Write the structure tokens for this entry.
Amino acid sequence: MDLDLTKATTNQIYNMLIGLVAPRPIAWITSLDLDGKLNAAPFSAFNYMGVDPPVVAVGVGNRPGSQIIGKDTARNIRNTGEFVINIVNESVAEAMNICAVDFPPGINELEIARLTTEPSLLVKVPRISEAPASLECREITTMEIGRTRVILGRVVAVHVKDEFVDHAGPYIRADELHAVGRMNGLGSYVKTRDAFFHITRMSHEDWLKKNNPDADNREG
Ligand SMILES: Cc1cc2nc3c(=O)[nH]c(=O)nc-3n(C[C@H](O)[C@H](O)[C@H](O)COP(=O)(O)O)c2cc1C
């Protein structure tokens, strides 16, 4: 199938992109409104963009419906300049889903999902205690592109539960963390438990050896 997206409907575009750009990590974002009320919602238009400085990007659409009403997360981040990305694993996946209900502004989704929070290290926005890890972020900028707000954030602190840290690196024990990813938009997720496989990264020299076993002899 070939599809010209310049002539496609928004629904067609959505179906293609969420089906093909998958699995996606989930940024379960906590943010505060100007009155200090806590908000939490998941976003899978999310990834890290770089490490020097540490930058993440999140894409936030409008609320469903014909009117252009932005989501609380994007508004809170614009107003306060801070947010926390909580990482989603199997143990908090159901609670994360409750936070995606389109509650009216001012509702604390975390209370409804029976979750607790604790203070962050550098930002005012608390992190979700039950999440395996959290990234504390300060807004770099929010770009309004059509009906999407692309939020770039600088990660200023990271919290990871000790059981998921190999202190040698430190590394994340990703095979223990059991993160979940989002597939399409129909409630489909993917588990990472027992799902790891490895492909050895090759240097150019390794590749030449593998593809031309006599190369060493000829050079000698
Ligand atoms: C797993 C998952 C991923 C989601 N990803 C996005 C996303 O990338 N962008 C978006 O605008 N909404 C996304 N949503 C929908 C929002 O979470 C939902 O609209 C939420 O109510 C927004 O809350 P807020 O108004 O408190 O910010 C996602 C929902 C789920 C369950």
